[in-house]
Design brief:
- By secondary structure, the protein is an all-alpha fold.
- It has a domain of 243 residues.
- 87% of the residues lie in helices and 0% in strands.
- It contains 21 helices and no strands.
- The chain is globular.
Length: 559
């Protein structure tokens, strides 16, 4: 009897240890991917300040044109990448779990052939098909021409990131992402300054060069990955040399595996972009029926919600993307081992981590939307821009939720079902788009996106709960606390905004750029500080971060 009890305790200890190790891997990977995404997104937002100043009165027109081109480019880019990086990450993790590292290397090589081929094809279609996709705006054509070059390089870069992620090596991906964005932003700013300020050239040319920066950044990102691959080549070779080498996979089967896994990734990876394209090709026609606004006025409105606000809310959504990328290979390993208990634990951890990060980030951004919008976009349309940003921040929660759980479904080989649920959400978006935009304008487009993506996310989460279950008691308890503390973030940040605006208004214009920056930073520090304090003090962080939270409490002197 004692032996049985001892064995049972030993097994439970091993399971707990395994669960902690898995959570540590996910947290470590999430930390790297989150850092890479956050720095990249911040750079991608901060550049807009000098860019706006140098474009002057052409800023909203230029930003709208930038958005038109980028939405189309994003769709082509996802098609060019073809979901291959995520498919490679998942399949490499699967074979690595079986100690078949050699098969993973062959997968990567075959994936390279596919990614180079799709890159060339999609680049040619985008370049020569640009006149057919301009939506009646000829200024979009040179922008699409400049973006076609990036599609030649990015698929190979993304594939190599996926290969590293299959080994749960997130640092190379994160660092290359940052280098890519840094090079892109530097090129954008240099060309914008020279064309608009030094040469007094065309704003259309300046936008085209700003979009060509994607190619410059991609080349630098790929070179960074090449450096890390070269540094770690001995480790990869050693793992291949010590593989079991028991599984023999034909080349045709490797291609079949990549493509079978990749196609759903295309559809789901393009999810948010598809919703944005629906806005791009319907917003103007619906608004012309509902209003008598000029084309320039509609361009300004489109820029406010589809480009300006979107650029900022993608910062918290990038946190969700980082979580999603980390979870796929880990879930693939659990599926390979048939460990349903581990799947339940990991999906619960993913859900908790998402709620813990995304909820306060979105509500905090909504609270400081006024000063934040002024920091990045100046005082033009400031009231409307702030309201749109605040509403967009709330809508970013279901967008992030979809990003995370679509990836979870893919990691669990639920690809077809995930695509089905996304298509249902898309039909809902299309069904409510016209009445929402007609009666609510820019807010209607955002609301329609929120409704459609929430339906898709709800179906996915319900399916996961039925198949594997969540730790509903833990989720319910922590969700209530996280929601409460996030509302505290919202309230405290909003109070700081009003208080500082009042105090600053006694001496200077509180709506100025520097004053708005100060208000934003102080509000974030107060709201974020309160959130960290309460989640650590009342042990919510323990369920998300595990033993790390004890160390954080000690450093911050929280009992």
């Amino acid at each position: 009897m004692e032996m049985k009890v001892g064995t049972k305790m030993s097994e439970e200890k091993q399971q707990t240890s395994s669960s902690e190790a898995t959570r540590d891997k996910m947290l470590s990977g999430s930390a790297w991917m989150t850092a890479g995404s956050m720095f990249s997104r911040l750079l991608g937002a901060i550049y807009i300040i000098p860019w706006r100043i140098w474009f002057g009165s052409y800023f909203l027109l230029g930003n709208a044109l930038y958005g038109f081109g980028y939405n189309i480019y994003s769709f082509f880019l996802i098609a060019a990448i073809a979901g291959i990086p995520s498919a490679i990450a998942k399949q490499v993790a699967h074979y690595n779990a079986l100690n078949e590292y050699g098969v993973g290397v062959r997968l990567y090589k075959r994936g390279l052939v596919l990614s180079v081929s799709t890159g060339i094809i999609c680049a040619l279609v985008l370049y020569f098909g640009a006149p057919l996709m301009d939506g009646g705006n000829p200024n979009v054509i040179p922008v699409l021409h400049s973006l076609a070059w990036a599609i030649l390089v990015i698929p190979t870069m993304s594939l190599t990131r996926g290969y590293f992620q299959g080994y749960q090596q997130m640092a190379p991906s994160a660092i290359s992402q940052f280098v890519e964005q840094l090079a892109r932003v530097l090129y954008m700013l240099l060309t914008a300054y020279l064309i608009m300020q030094v040469w007094h050239g065309s704003w259309i040319t300046a936008v085209a060069q700003s979009t060509f920066a994607a190619f410059v950044g991609a080349v630098c990102g790929l070179l960074t990955l090449g450096y890390y691959y070269w540094k770690r080549r001995r480790t990869f070779r050693s793992l291949v040399a010590n593989s079991n080498n028991e599984i023999k996979v034909q080349t045709s089967q490797l291609y079949h595996e990549i493509i079978a896994q990749a196609v759903p990734f295309i559809i789901l990876g393009a999810g948010i972009t598809i919703f944005q394209l629906i806005d791009q090709y319907t917003f103007f026609d619906i608004m012309r029926m509902a209003t008598n606004y000029s084309n320039d006025a509609l361009n300004d409105l489109y820029a406010l919600f589809a480009v300006n606000a979107n650029k900022l809310v993608m910062i918290p959504i990038s946190l969700a993307s980082a979580l999603a990328i980390t979870s796929v290979p880990l879930l693939s390993v659990a599926i390979t081992k048939g460990d349903t208990k581990a799947i339940k634990g990991q999906t619960t951890n993913v859900f908790l981590l998402f709620l813990y990060v995304m909820t306060p980030a979105a509500l905090g951004m909504a609270a400081i939307a006024g000063p934040l919008n002024r920091v990045f976009y100046g005082q033009a349309h400031q009231a409307l821009g702030a309201n749109i940003l605040s509403f967009s921040a709330i809508i970013s929660i279901p967008l992030g939720l979809f990003t995370v759980f679509a990836a979870v479904m893919q990691g669990l080989n639920q690809n077809k079902r995930a695509v089905k649920y996304f298509l249902i959400g898309t039909v809902v978006k299309l069904a409510v788009q016209w009445p929402c935009v007609y009666f609510l304008g820019t807010f209607g487009a955002l609301l329609a996106t929120g409704i459609g993506i929430l339906v898709a996310s709800g179906l996915i989460i319900n399916n996961l709960n039925k198949q594997y279950g969540f730790d509903n008691k833990l989720l319910g308890n922590d969700f209530a606390k996280i929601s409460g503390y996030s509302l505290l973030v919202y309230g405290s940040a909003l109070a700081v905004v009003y208080l500082l605006n009042f105090l600053l208004g006694l001496f200077i214009d509180p709506n100025g750029g520097m004053a708005s920056l100060l208000v934003s930073l102080v509000s974030v520090l107060v709201g974020g500080g309160l959130y960290v304090y309460f989640t650590l003090k009342y042990r919510v962080a323990d369920d998300v971060l595990g033993p790390r939270s004890e160390g954080l409490r000690a450093r911050l002197h929280i009992k």
